[in-house]
Amino acid sequence: MSAHVVFVTSSPSTKSRSSFLADFVGKQVRAAGHRASAFAVTDFDAADLILGRSDSPAVATFVQGVKGADAIVVATPVYKATYSGALKAVVDLVPPDALEGKLALGIATTRLGDHAASVDAAYRSLFAFFRARTLDPLVVLDRELAAGAAGFAFEDAGRARVDRAVQALLAALAA
What we know:
The chain is an alpha/beta fold. It contains six helices and eight strands, in the order E-H-E-H-H-E-H-E-H-E-E-E-E-H. Strand 3, helix 4 (85-91) and strand 4 (103-110) form a beta-alpha-beta unit. The longest helix is centred in the last third of the chain and has 19 residues, at 156-174.
């Protein structure tokens, strides 16, 4: 049976490492026969995010997408040792019961490996609030994604971790 997965990216840049990872995972989800919808922090008017305007058309579309999804994947660059404030602003628009029992995968990119534990704890706490079924977060170091003229390319260790996260997501969707 086909599942619907909502992806949320919180980098203000469409060419960020975290956006690349969300897109990569989304392609794997689609290749496995599932539907995927993508939302970026830049899809929303900043005032709607800051003021929590749930009646704006962009926010209403996002909330309906999340409510109708089987899973959510959020991706962020690490700012101040955890997920970005922009991601927090988007997640604050999600009603408390919208993710109950749904799969949730957090993705983060960071320069410092020491941030992995704080990102893991932050995602687990966030998804626990929503009573979602939390998958192990995926944290990829910046150095594991080489930047080139054509975009990003995986270094071996980063790719192996991404593949494991994708397989865990796909297995959970199939269960």
